[in-house]
Amino acid sequence: MDNLLIVADLSEPDPVMFSYGTGLEDWVRSELPEVQLLDLDAGSDKSFALQIKQGLQKAKKAALWIKSDKSGNGLGGVAGLVEFAVRNPEKCLLLLEGENAMLERFGKATKGNFVAGAEEELKLEVIEYFEFAG
After folding, report:
1. pTM of the predicted model as reported, rounded to 2 decimal places
2. Average pLDDT of 61-85?
């Protein structure tokens, strides 16, 4: 697998709305068809996060896009993914949509490979990042 985008939604899980197939995922499929997309949410099984981490390790270039709706909340099942991104800034772009104090602290350790912003800003970052990935 060459290019991988992981979308992790740490917001409180909504039992009525499942995030897969939302506007962001549809956008990735149409704008970046060469990028494999994986997504997980706050309710995802921890073993699924471990499988995603294995994919992250095998990817040539990856981006970890975290959606969070509360400042100060933890990282939940994506802590291992964030750790990988922080330790491998040359290989993995770390993105934050929303607020998460812990992730912002980790982001400072990525040597400039961390972007926090609104969805539209992050889409531009992802396009630029994967265009340079070749």
Report:
1. 0.86
2. 84
